[in-house]
């Protein structure tokens, strides 16, 4: 998409020739004002900061998704999508002003030297970092650095009387966008993508390479996937579409229509596929979902997606900052607009309307969602009715599941009590559980969180001023057990194990997906052939 946009720029410049003189006048006007401010104003003014504020204020008067990114934040903003950074390779949390390793990145430099989950890093290059008001930014500045450089770490490990010393050589660290892939049922693959980064297509292919044979059905979980690189989403979309079928098209006032067509080289062009979405699925994930729905290629299960269908193009500024300016709209193959309605300059109203969707009960009732007849479209094969004007509506609606939810359990999570307790608890059980359960399947089948662990967690919460709540415990105890089990599995095995335990316990959307994919002919006839 970026390369095609760049090809359009010369045409835009020629068409804008008549406006060039006026634009030059306005640029000179702003320059004069800043010159006067710098040289004549009574007080000292931070002109660069003021210019940033002016740009940010201007951005707020546009659409709700154009954005300004200060120079200091550009690198961090891009890392999530670029798919890697250079550092030591640990997931961490700051607990009681101490850097605690949640997990070393698989295959990364920290894992290779023997750093474990729950290790506490107390010094970096002989500089103590505990009890100093530690922040994420401080951790990044200490642990990240150019590939090949070395960093010395002092680590406290439970059961070891003296701090351990490690020398870690920094390297490129992958940031995985595919956090789960496993065989949900014989010959049925489950894959969960959390975003579309530069590495997502490689991760997608590698995931299927681990299966014994190509699956006969695919469950693609895009719940909570907020988007990312559109061209990567298109590479994954065309895995399911025949050659020449349009996946998405974009157009804007200054941007001619551009159609993106499937190459026909996909691995799953005839494989049954179910896509899972929810209110957290946005942008590129909505484009993928809309394409498969419009071509009657997949059955969509879950709740209505977010509704972000505007094309942002990153444009660099001279000081290293960046504006991500909206230049067009995404349309599904039928012509549907994914973007939810908005008024220029009214970001507050836009996001308030999104919140109102859920306070009106959208998460729990399909009947609370209404579409205008004027926004109805016909799918391209079966000619069934679908709607535009704000997100993708699933073919099968599954309400939000609140089984096991209680304010008590939610507070325990929000206050960081669960994270802090689990880091301490896993310290004590990791060795014995690792010896007992060499394979995840054995752990998943046989391990049960002991009552003593639950009581220890409750007591720990009380020590953090969260009193015991018997009524809430009665409601939340099964959920507490499964989440603790999943957290242990993530430490012993991987993130895919965590997701699998949560899915299999009591996820109604996941269970519906299994039902649909194993009865594909029935649901294909009922839904895709209406």
Mean pLDDT: 88
How would the global form be characterised?
Answer: globular
> Which regions are unreliable across 5 or more consecutive residues at pLDDT < 50?
none
Q: What is the C-alpha radius of gyration, as a whole number of Å?
A: 26 Å
> Which percent range describes the beta-strand content?
15-25%
Distance between the termini: 34 Å
Report the biggest beta sheet as strand number plus sense, adding barrel if it closes.
Answer: 6 strands, antiparallel
The helix/strand class is alpha+beta
Please work out how many helical segments DSSP would assign.
18
The residue fraction in helices comes out at 40-55%
- What's the total count of β strands? 21
Quick take:
By secondary structure, the protein is α+β, with helices and mostly antiparallel strands. The protein is 42% helix and 21% strand.
Would you write up a description of this structure?
The protein is of the alpha+beta class. It has 18 helices and 21 strands. The strands form five sheets. Strands 3, 4, 5, 6, 7 and 8 form a six-stranded antiparallel beta sheet that branches. The chain has a six-stranded mixed beta sheet with strand order 10-11-12-15-16-21, sandwiched between helices. Helix 12 packs antiparallel against helix 14. 33% of the residues are buried.
């Amino acid at each position: 998409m970026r390369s095609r946009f760049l090809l359009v720029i010369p045409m835009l410049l020629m068409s804008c020739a008549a406006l060039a003189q006026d634009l030059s006048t306005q640029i000179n006007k702003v320059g004069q004002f800043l010159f006067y401010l710098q040289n004549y104003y009574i007080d000292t003014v931070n002109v660069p900061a003021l210019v940033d504020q002016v740009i940010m204020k201007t951005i707020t008067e546009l659409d709700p998704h154009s954005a300004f990114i200060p120079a200091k934040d550009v690198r961090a903003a891009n890392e999530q999508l670029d798919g890697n950074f250079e550092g030591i390779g640990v997931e961490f949390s700051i607990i009681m002003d101490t850097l605690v390793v949640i997990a070393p990145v698989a295959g990364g430099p920290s894992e290779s030297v023997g750093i474990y989950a729950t290790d506490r890093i107390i010094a970096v290059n002989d500089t103590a970092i505990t009890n100093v008001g530690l922040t994420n930014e401080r951790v990044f500045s200490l642990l990240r650095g150019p590939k090949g450089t070395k960093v010395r770490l002092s680590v406290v490990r439970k059961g070891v009387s003296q701090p351990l010393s490690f020398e870690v050589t920094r390297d490129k660290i992958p940031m995985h966008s595919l956090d789960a892939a496993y065989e949900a049922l014989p010959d049925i693959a489950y894959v969960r993508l959390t975003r579309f980064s530069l590495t997502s297509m490689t991760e997608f292919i590698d995931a299927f390479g681990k299966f014994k044979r190509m699956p006969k059905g695919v469950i693609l979980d895009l719940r909570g996937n907020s988007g990312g690189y559109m061209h990567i989403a298109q590479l994954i979309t065309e895995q399911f579409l025949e050659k020449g079928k349009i996946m998405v098209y974009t157009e804007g006032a200054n941007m001619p229509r551009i159609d993106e067509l499937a190459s026909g080289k996909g691995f799953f062009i005839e494989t049954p596929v179910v896509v899972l979405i929810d209110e957290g699925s946005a942008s590129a994930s909505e484009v993928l979902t809309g394409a498969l729905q419009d071509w009657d290629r997949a059955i969509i299960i879950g709740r209505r997606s977010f509704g972000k269908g505007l094309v942002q193009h990153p444009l660099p500024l001279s000081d290293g900052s960046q504006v991500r300016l909206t230049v067009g709209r995404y349309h599904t193959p039928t012509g549907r607009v994914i973007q939810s309605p908005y008024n220029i300059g009214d970001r507050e109203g836009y996001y308030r309307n999104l919140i109102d969707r859920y306070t009106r009960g959208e998460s729990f009732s399909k009947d609370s969602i209404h579409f205008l007849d004027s926004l109805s479209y016909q799918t391209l094969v079966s000619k069934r009715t679908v709607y535009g004007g704000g997100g993708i509506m699933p073919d099968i609606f599954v309400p939000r599941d609140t089984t096991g939810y209680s304010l008590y359990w939610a507070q325990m999570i929000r206050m960081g009590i669960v994270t802090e307790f689990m880091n301490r608890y896993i310290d004590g059980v990791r060795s014995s559980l690792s010896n007992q359960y060499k394979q995840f399947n054995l752990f998943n089948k046989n391990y049960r969180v002991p009552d003593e662990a639950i009581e220890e967690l409750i007591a720990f919460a009380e020590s953090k001023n969260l009193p015991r709540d018997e009524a809430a415990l009665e409601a939340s105890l099964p959920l507490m057990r499964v989440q603790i089990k999943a957290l242990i599995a993530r430490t012993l095995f991987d993130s895919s194990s965590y997701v699998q335990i949560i899915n299999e316990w009591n996820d109604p959307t996941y269970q519906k997906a299994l039902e649909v994919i194993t009865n594909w002919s029935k649901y294909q006839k009922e839904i895709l052939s209406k």
